[in-house]
UniProtKB/TrEMBL annotation:
This is Peptidyl-tRNA hydrolase. Gene3D superfamilies: Peptidyl-tRNA hydrolase (3.40.50.1470). GO terms for molecular function: peptidyl-tRNA hydrolase activity. InterPro entries: Pept_tRNA_hydro, Pept_tRNA_hydro_sf. Pfam families: Pept_tRNA_hydro. It comes from Populus deltoides.
Amino acid sequence: MQVGFEMIDAFAGSLGISMNIPLCKALFGEGFVGDAPVLLAKPQTYMNLSGESAGPLAAYYKLPLNRVIVFHDDMELPCGVLRLQEKGGHGCHRGLKSVINHFRGNREFARLRIGIGRPPGQMDPKAFLLQKFNAIARERIDAALPEGVVALRCILFEGLTRTARWFNQEQKYKYIRSETMST
C-alpha cells in the first residue's frame, strides 16, 4: 500500500508535473499552482527510511518546515478518510519517525494522513501494509485522492490552518455518513 505515493501522483497529475528527476534518493518534480511554486518528491528509500530523502531535500531547497507536507497512510483512520494535521509526533509510524529524525527532531511540518483502516481480525499489521487493497478499500481510496488534491490546492490559496479546519470538518461528516449507511 503506497497511498502517499498515490496522493503525490494524483496531485502531480492534476498540475501536469512529471515525477522523473532523481534527486536526494527521491523521484522529484516541480511546478506551479498559480504563482505558488510546488516541489514534490517520492522517496525511493524503504518507507521506514523516508527521512533519508526528505531531510536532504528540505535542506537543499532551504525549505522552512512549515512549508513541508508529508503524505502518509494511517491505520488509525477509516479507509478513505483524510486528515490534515499542522504538526505532531510520529504516532508509531516508522516513516514519519525517520522524517522527524532527519528534520533534527523538529515536528513542525504538516501531514496529510490517508486512512487505510485497521487490519482485519488478528492479521499482522506488517502483512496488512504489504497487501493490495480489496475492491471496497480501493474504491474508497480512489474517491479520497481527488479530495486530497482539492485540499492541497486550497492550502496554497487559503493557508494550512484555514484549510485544515474546513477540510477535517468535511471529512468528519463523510465518515459519519459512511458509518450511518453501513449500519
